[in-house]
């Protein structure tokens, strides 16, 4: 789905910096990042190891605070929020998908997907209905009662995606989501992300794989803690030195 240029950005970053340590051990992980991502965009964030892309993902996901700068998520200035407010923002506005699936091994797929709604105080019956619907969206309606050890890696990642979308977030943030999967399963998972984006969800994916980034609409390229390209076409990735 094409973004609406008249809409306010889902992600708005202005002069974002992130500094670790002090004195001789100072590391400038982000050096004045400006970035806008509009509703219904599907972007990938790329860059070499140490380029700042993982730090950027942590800031966008409200998992880490910037040292300076302005960050608005869906119109909310989150840069100065306290820990409790950040936790609420993460639960209500962001869905996370990681390379490792982070599923609870002792409970079913349905129970894993219900978990974010527990923190959101959603009534139990609504939890079950919404979790079942999310699992159906990712093609696992026949695996709801299976535990993670009864599922393949691709199926476990589908459960993780269902868990990420069950609270209807404004942003789906994926960090190397296909890194532990084979080529065929990777394509299946990318197809799910594309389908979610087609339905209107904003998706941001951190990846080091050009083949994965080529499934997105645009590429944001990091180098030395700065955005070098903010609107690279995925088809131009083969011209970039990795």
List keywords for this structure.
four-stranded antiparallel β-sheet, Rossmann fold, alpha/beta, 32% helix
Helix content: 25-40%
Number of helices: 7
Give the integer mean of the pLDDT values.
Answer: 91
Rg from C-alpha positions? 18 Å
Q: In the CATH hierarchy, what is the class?
A: Alpha Beta
What is the 3D shape? globular
What do we call the CATH topology?
Answer: Rossmann fold
CATH architecture: 3-Layer(aba) Sandwich
Number of domains in the coordinates? 1
User: How are strands sequenced across the largest beta sheet?
Assistant: 6-7-8-3-9-10
Proportion of β residues? Answer: 25-35%
**Uncertain residue segments:** 1-6
> From the helix content, strand content and strand pairing, which structural class follows?
alpha/beta
Distance between the termini: 29 Å
The number of strands is 10
Order of helices and strands: EEEHEEHEHHHEHEHEE
CATH homology-level superfamily: P-loop containing nucleotide triphosphate hydrolases
- Largest sheet features: 6 strands, mixed
Structural account:
- With 242 residues, the protein is an alpha/beta fold.
- The strands form 2 sheets. It has a 6-stranded mixed sheet, with helices on both faces. A 4-stranded antiparallel sheet has the order 2-1-4-5, covered by helices on one side.
- The protein has one domain: Rossmann fold, CATH 3.40.50.300.
- Helix content is 32%, strand content 26%.
- The chain contains 7 helices and 10 strands.
- This is Putative ABC transporter ATP-binding protein YknY.
Provide the fold topology.
Blueprint: E1 11-20, E2 27-37, E3 42-46, H1 53-60, E4 68-73, E5 76-77, H2 83-93, E6 94-98, H3 109-119, H4 124-137, H5 153-165, E7 171-175, H6 183-198, E8 202-206, H7 210-213, E9 218-223, E10 226-232
Parallel strand pairs: 3-8, 3-9, 6-7, 7-8
Antiparallel strand pairs: 1-2, 1-4, 4-5, 9-10
Organism: Acaryochloris thomasi RCC1774
GO cellular component, one term: membrane protein complex
EC number: 3.6.3.-
